[in-house]
């Protein structure tokens, strides 16, 4: 399910499936994209920041066209204790690998991987990102 911003409309709450993972997509070529994510973050329940939120940054293959400061993106990840994933959606191989990575994260967050919690997995990702 996709949403362009939060909060979600409340009139369909009873029909909404359980939310296991929230991936905020930031287009590195668009300041509006970053501002939209920043405006949506206060509407997310704090419990989601215990391993069920990630920031997916697209357009990283075109660093020359960046409108968003990389420090601002790293700060989001740090401030919200959430992993930052960089990808280039225009390249099929990277797009497929990113989709597989997100699917694995979703399986963990939904509790379908025995012995691995969303919080534990999130901490592993955050530690490996700094290396």
UniProtKB/TrEMBL annotation:
Q: What is this protein called?
A: Centromere protein M
User: What's in the GO CC field?
Assistant: chromosome, centromeric region; nucleus
Q: Which InterPro entries match?
A: Centromere_Cenp-M, P-loop_NTPase
Q: What is its main location?
A: nucleus
Q: Does the keyword Nucleus apply?
A: yes
- One matching Pfam family: CENP-M
Q: Which gene encodes it?
A: Cenpm
Stretch forming the signal peptide: none
| UniProt entry keywords in alphabetical sequence | Centromere, Chromosome, Nucleus
